């Protein structure tokens, strides 16, 4: 069947859903890895409940990892729907997952912007809080400093910048899935 009343041909839906689903899978996995790197190299040593800034870092990073998992789920749902266009349950699942992914990624994007701003504002002092200044001068890694403090500031900011770009791309492709689901459900 050809284009009818502005709707895409089912074969076209399949291709767009498959491509979008694959992109979301890749983006979600990359963002998950980025969040895990930030947590594993720095934040697991830095986050304390007594410091609001470090707590913000931890919450934002954890939310970013959760958003990445939601994006992967959205990608899987889009791929599944590209294979089986018929069941309405798959269309509703894609609608819910893409809406949730878009909103969660938007919140993470805003949280990352705040984290980057806070880090630039305090010049990385919160990131270096577990290290005493004497231990930084004597040796890069010592008992007083659980990680190499020489590159923490730039590495963390770089990883957050990558995560920020990935979140923006996830939002774009999640919204694309949302619009496709709305069109398939004729809403």
Automatic annotation (TrEMBL):
Keyword NAD recorded: no
Cellular compartments per GO CC: membrane
Keywords: Membrane, Transmembrane, Transmembrane helix
A Pfam family the protein falls into: BCLP
Principal localisation: membrane
Segments crossing the lipid bilayer: 21-42, 62-81, 93-118, 157-182
Similarity remark: Belongs to the TMEM54 family.
Record protein name field: TMM54 protein
Lineage: Eukaryota, Metazoa, Chordata, Craniata, Vertebrata
Gene label: Tmem54
């Amino acid at each position: 069947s050809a284009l009818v009343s502005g709707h895409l041909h089912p074969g076209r839906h399949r291709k767009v859903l498959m491509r979008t689903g694959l992109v979301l899978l890749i983006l979600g996995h990359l963002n998950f890895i980025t969040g895990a790197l930030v947590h594993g190299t720095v934040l697991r040593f830095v986050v304390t409940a007594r410091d609001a800034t470090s707590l913000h870092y931890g919450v934002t990073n954890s939310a970013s990892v959760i958003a990445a998992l939601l994006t992967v789920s959205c990608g899987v749902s889009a791929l599944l729907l590209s294979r089986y266009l018929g069941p309405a349950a798959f269309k509703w699942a894609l609608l819910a997952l893409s809406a949730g992914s878009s909103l969660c990624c938007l919140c993470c994007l805003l949280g990352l912007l705040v984290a980057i701003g806070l880090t630039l504002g305090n010049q990385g002092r919160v990131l270096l809080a577990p290290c005493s200044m004497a231990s930084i001068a004597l040796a890069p890694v010592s008992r007083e400093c659980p990680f190499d403090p020489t590159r923490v500031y730039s590495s963390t900011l770089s990883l957050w910048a990558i995560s920020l770009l990935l979140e923006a791309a996830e939002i774009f492709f999640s919204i694309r899935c949302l619009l496709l689901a709305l069109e398939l459900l004729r809403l």
